[in-house]
Amino acid sequence: MAALNAAISQDELQLAARNHGLPLEALRYPVTPAGLHYILIHYDIPDVAADGWALKVDGRVANPLELTLGDLRARTAQEVTATMECAGNGRALLTPHVVSQPWLLEAVGNATWTGVPLRPILEEAELLDDALEVVFTGLDRGVEKGVEQSYQRSLGLDVALGDDVLLAYEMNGEPLLPQHGFPLRLLVPGWYGMTNVKWLAGITVVAEPFQGYQQTAAYRYRENEDDEGTPVTRMQPRALMVPPGIPDFNTRDRTVSVGPCTLEGRAWSGWAPVTRVEISTDNGETWADAELEPLDSRWGWRGWSYEWAADEPGDYILCCRAHDEAGNVQPLEATWNVGGYSNNAPQRVSVTVE
Question: What gap in Å lies between CA 118 and CA 177, rounded to an integer?
């Protein structure tokens, strides 16, 4: 791992202490245990009592709804296994330094979510002819860049009516933990984590593009502060490796014994299934194909492995990169942007063979 390009401020350290990532050795789990799945909490975890909570569906609909958790659980359930990654994953590795939650590579997880499909609920609410977007409002509230707000994001109808978009009340077969959005959260498979609104309290159908902070100011690819930018949407392809051998406590550099060494990890893309993972043992100078495991879920990550003949003592930098069915591939170098989003340059793992 390259040294960070700037010191982390106390404010950023405070964010890092509140928001935790997946230890990379936990990539071994096909489904991430809830306590190891990455977490980003924009403001505070709301104090929600399930028996006093209800979801309101209103706006440009003919039949507004108010649904309790019991109402939702009484409906036909659907299960989706999906990888979820923070849009800022890799931010701390960018140059120049971007001040925000300082993720390295660990802001990801793969969970099985249970809930009810969103589309039948919107159909029951009867969208009016001028319906354009659906706004999702969480119970978490705070201030960001001077703007006081509830956390809100919107989706166009084409996405909101997708088959696998869920209102999820369970994670890995158990009720949502408070930090994961209890009692209800939105799940939009394939999209970066900011889309999956937690502590969901309201669904409002609108006839014009939503102009909230998290839609028009945050989560946009911008070259500079004056650039309007383009929205962050689906996850870019990425492969991650379980670091082999044993780590140095401080640097996390690895030591591996001479001889055969199995490299393994996971790869995903929000655009299309992963079809190829490449491995380099010489810092990206040459590449070889890894072996892919069967794809268990359209929206979940895909396992891969590679047999490395680590026969020569010395220092190595291991890399991995993913390709998807749509032709997207991880770039060899990151593209900087103001928010530090979607840095999917290949992971690099420093290893000493001895």
Answer: 21
